[in-house]
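Quick illustration for those who missed Monday's session on complexes.
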Amino acid sequence: MKKLSFHAFVALAVLVVIVIQLIGDISYSKIAPQVQYGVLNLKTWNFERDGPVTLNGKWEFNWNELRTPEMFATGKDQHYVSVPKLWNQVELNGVPLSGTGYASYRIQIFKNSSEVLLGLWMPGTFSSYNIWINGKLYIKEGVVANNAEEAVPSFRNRLIMIPAPKDKLDIVIQVANFAHYKGGISVAPEIGTVNQMTRKSKLETAKDSLIFGCLFIIGLYQFGMFMGRRKEKFTFFFGLLCIAIAVRMLTLGDVMLMYWTSWYRWTGVIRLDYCLITIAVMAGVSFVHYLFKEDTLQKYYYTLIGSGFVFLLISLTLSSLFFTSILIMYQIYIVFAVVFSIIVTVRAIQSQRTGATITLLGFIIFAVLIFNDILYYQGFAPIRDLAPFGLVVCVFIHSLMLSRRISKAMGDVESLYYELRELNAGLETRIEHRTSELVRMNESLESKNDELERMERSRRHLLSNISHDLRTPMTLIRGYLEALYDDVIVEPDEQKKYMKLMLNKVNSLNHLIEDLFELSKLEARQVNVEMVDVRLERFISHIEEQYELELRARGLLFACYNLTYRDAPPVSLNLRMDLDRMIQVFDNIIYNAVKFTPTGGKISIRFQYVISKSCIQISINDTGVGIDPEDLPYIFDRFYKRDKSRNSAVGGSGLGLSIAKEIVELHHGRIWAQSSYGQGSTFHIELPVYDL
Ligand code: ADP
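Prediction with adenosine-5'-diphosphate bound:
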């Protein structure tokens, strides 16, 4: 819908331009008579009513003669030639004329109307002329002479006011040309009332001014755009194209500012004209080339630009007579440029580039109007000189296309801006998210660090403990050995006692080393475990068998309670374990309990099922001395003993609970202790339950 309204706008604008062009060509209903053998009969013609008359037809003509009205009056040999017609197209007595030379024209108009003043519109003629009307010299355009040295070319349209006698107008025109390839009257003069002719002349000026103004402003605007965005070279070339054509209108059209300057020279202007045409063509192809960079034809583009420079050089250095004679080459150059532009634009359409279709439309309109002018000069089309307007339409369409491109780009920028803003907002929340994640990671790193520090402390502690626990018995053994060796102890009974002491120390050292070895293997998970499925009932009865008798013998009460039936489903519960190692855990806990429970105390074991965790919780309780709350968090640490003197009589290695913990964790379980000091302790073990 948006696109449709844009196209409608373009169509409307083109229509307006064409209507402006047609205003000057309003036709009157009556067909004007033609000039016949130098005579135009307008006896029944009323200019006011029937409109102006174009003076085309057969004029009296004298080649290589500059006749004055008097000479015509007495002249005998009469020749006739068609007006408008270039000398280059005329044959006189079977001999073709050349474009350069001089000649005289004459026409006699017979009329009846009673206008006081008539207007004669004389178009620019190649390349200088004099006009007499009824014997009076009215206009000298340039200098008419019979040789190239004296003749001075000049080319412009003129409006002549003539007092109109009632019955006859005798018009004599001398034309001389030594500067242009073409010579003679190429457009027929026109006669009408002063109003009609003034209007025509003003319209010509107005049309040229309009074209000049449009192109000049568009050109400046494009240059301004280019200043802002150097990257988009096509705006520069488009501006150059517009300015070149505008300047051309200024120098050659009816505005003709150049005529009002003292240094005006026709040859300079014609040189400028050819240069401007070439520059416009080069700018045009460069515009297309840079506009559709991806679709251009590099090789052809550079050929066109190269040839453009050659044409520029020719127009600037060689004589006007020469370069006007090769006008056809310039025209072929323009045709190639148009074909190049159309091909590139068609390729751009195929690649679906923005504005390609509308650009092609502009070129086609331009091409059609050029074709119209060619047809007009061949006598097939009714309206002449549409090409400049075609160009204006083309330029107009292109500037519309460019403005559309720009507004699209601006729209894109706007939506990009909003997208960026949204993205930014998203980024902020993401950053917040990331920051909180980082804070969390930092916290966890900190706690890891604390843990590492704790581990490092415990490692150092462990080392010093190991060395202490190894050195102490060693020192004792060395002392005993030295005493034996130095014969300090000589009594055989004494000697035996000391040797027994040493053997005990060695055994406990051995035990310590074994425990250490076991613990380090467990920690490194380098132990072979033989997991077997064990029914809970079987495990309970195994434990009962294991400890009952021994504990009773030590004067302690012992009981096992299976409470799993209370909470468990009526299916058998199974544990998966390395039975020997699990017994090692129980040994450790139970013998510790024995150590700290006086005779008559009680050691009991409870088995419970925790449904929510699907595990068995085993609680080993004693009624012994209990554990000091200060010691409780550390009892699973290596070498931790409640009795800080390492030679305690009740002391073991301090590794038992650490080993128990490792074994339980190897079974994916958990171990912890509870105690009320002075009332006993409870050790809890949690082991997962498996389906058989
Ligand atoms: P050890 O081999 O020296 O017994 P453990 O690692 O087995 O070392 O035990 C560490 C410490 O925990 C013991 O020295 C003791 O102080 C304390 N402990 C363990 N079990 C009990 C208990 N049932 N009653 C009181 N204290 C206990």
